[in-house]
Amino acid sequence: MSRSSLGASALATLIATVVCANTASAEDLAAIEAAAKTEGMLTTIALPHDWCGYGGVIESFKKKYPDIKVNELNPDAGSADELEAIRANKDNKGPQAPDVIDVGFSFGPAAKKEGLLQPYKVSTWDSIPENVKDPEGYFYGDYYGVLSFVINKDLVKTAPEDWADLLKPEYANSVALAGDPRASNQAILGVYAAGLSAGATGAEAIGQAGLDYFAKMNKAGNFVPTIGKAGTIAQGATPIVIMWDYNGLSARETLKGNPPVDVVVPKTGVVAGVYVQGISAHAPHPNAAKLWMEHLYSDEGQLGWLNGYCHPIRFNSLAAENKIPKDLLDALPPAAAYEKASFPTVEDQDASKAVVTAKWDAVVGANVK
């Protein structure tokens, strides 16, 4: 069905018939694509181009659907900011209202509970593991990685090997998180990982132990209250940044040896994080949002995450079908680095997040920005 052949009444009927949560069929996809082209825009939020290969993923979507403009909002926003953007724009159909979100695993159930998401099951739904998707289709995992230390080798001569090392005097004024731990899922899990490394058990206790760890780091003068990224690593403002392995590997590639960058997965407290996708319940362009999800969960979209050094959520399915190029596998850290990885449950993440976000200011006292 061409864009020009779709009348107003037909469009209304079409949109009404493609909003169901059942797994999309080929007929559904054709209808969704036609409606999405009529909408003509997709509004995303919090998608830095150097995060998990998003730059390439967005470009491949544009190439596939040139009739749909991609409107990108606030690439440096955290997961909490994404949910706030939906709340703030629920009655606004303008360009500041996001259609889709990409948030940390624990933010998915919270967004569903609050009524911020609408259900939709992509056509590859069955190959997404059950434990990382909402059974009704409100949110679903898309990729994961592990937290690592990303290091400017020009400034840090001896790379830290574990969390305890970061408290040493030699790392004075050197260590940063890649987000604000009061809002960023990546930073919150960084605190969680530190607590796990300290030997704490139970989500709330792990969160508290992580806060105590960062309080020690801040008191020692090692913590830098600046959101770390490739630019701050290169400038020397944050010589060591705690961030996802895929972001660190992407930064290393982007900086091209100027300065040389090392990416170290710690020996203990190895925490894996799953990020989930969802469609706003108030999306101005709901069919473009569905088409975007279909793109992300297609073989092409999933391999796009591997290009960005991420493990796609359909990794096992793609590997079983021999669809993963060897060069993409070889670019990832050795499999041994992931052997001790812990995948916190949504419940654990919720419990630790509540502790970290509520107590960071009182316990650590560093205003990260």
From TrEMBL:
Q: Which Gene3D superfamilies match?
A: Periplasmic binding protein-like II (3.40.190.10)
Q: Per the record's keyword annotation, is S-adenosyl-L-methionine included, yes or no?
A: no
The answer to whether the entry has keyword Signal is yes
Q: Which GO terms describe its cellular component?
A: outer membrane-bounded periplasmic space
Provide the GO MF annotations for this entry: thiamine binding; thiamine pyrophosphate binding
Q: Which GO terms describe its biological process?
A: thiamine transport
Keywords from the named record: Signal
* Signal peptide (from-to): 1-26
Q: Which domain of life is it from?
A: Bacteria
Give the protein name, as stated in the record. Putative spermidine/putrescine transport system substrate-binding protein
The protein's organism comes out as: Thiothrix eikelboomii
